[in-house]
Task: structure prediction
Amino acid sequence: MSKYERVAIYLQDKHSIPESMEFAKYAEKKEFEAIWQAESRLARVASVPMAAMAAVTNKIKLGSGVINNLVTVAPAVAATFSTMDQMAPGRFICGIGAWWEPLASKVGTPRTKPLKRMKEYVTVLKKLFNMETVTFDGEFVKVDGITLDIVHGDPDKAREVPIYIGATGMKMLELTGELCAQKLADGVVLNYMVSPDYNVTALKHLEIGAKRGGGSLDDIDRPQLIVCSMDHDREKALDAARELLTQYMGQQPHLMKASKMPQDILDKIHAELTWPATKEQIRKAMRHIPDDIVQRISASGTPDECYDRVQQWVDNGCTCPILYQLSDDVKLMIDTFAQK
Result:
């Protein structure tokens, strides 16, 4: 048995949806808690593969990791998850985030006042899941006397769809703590490409928010995305993580800040990259990231190294590792964390 009481897997868009369905069946067989499906960039929406994976499994939970609160109105998100809940009741988790720049502006939805937008959005979303009739006149969310229209099933029964907020910055973490304490959200999805030391600071700010909302840190579930670049070839594993880190350091400023990457390295990376970066630029820029930084903000290396390294995030407050395997051998990672 694994020493990890809870463990989940993170899937992005590298694999086909049929492959993801097979991974979901295998992870369920190995008693993983959940599959979290990315909805990053403009690559793949989360809801379609989540529904596909639910169709071939029986109990594993499916979370969006994370959808954004900019391009789809809250009632539409509520209707989407309510629909999926009819398919696999009690198994879907709505993970939602504030997205990032410059992508948000490039699609015509600039990321303005993210804290206020998140609070309004989550408040309305939770009320809709609770089958309330909602009127809300916010700055970003405006609805007038709406409720989820349930034709099939009990129209009065609350939808069992927990809300998890993808938070990286300290102010968003405080808001998440406050909303969890107020029972408007159920947990936080802590980000990846941060060191275990980041968690110590993050939990302090979650607690500040929880106390502000009349609760405590214990009110907040804290699963965390963790890059797990695992391969029997150690150098191959480190290079896979190095390439991913280079791409994200060049494109997502909030992760750049949270990772505490040394400025001189960031300057060298940014000198090589445009947005969006080409594969050639990423390969050229990644040489600037040394092994020690790769291992500081990811669990990379041999199976044994990765297995032991994840414990450091757990020791610092992560309640459920959500493991993102970079190599093609996803089953190797599942086996490593299931059978130790």
About this structure: The chain has a mean pLDDT of 93. The first strand starts at residue 8 and ends at 11. The two ends are 5 Å apart (CA to CA). The chain has two domains: 8-232+299-339, 233-298.
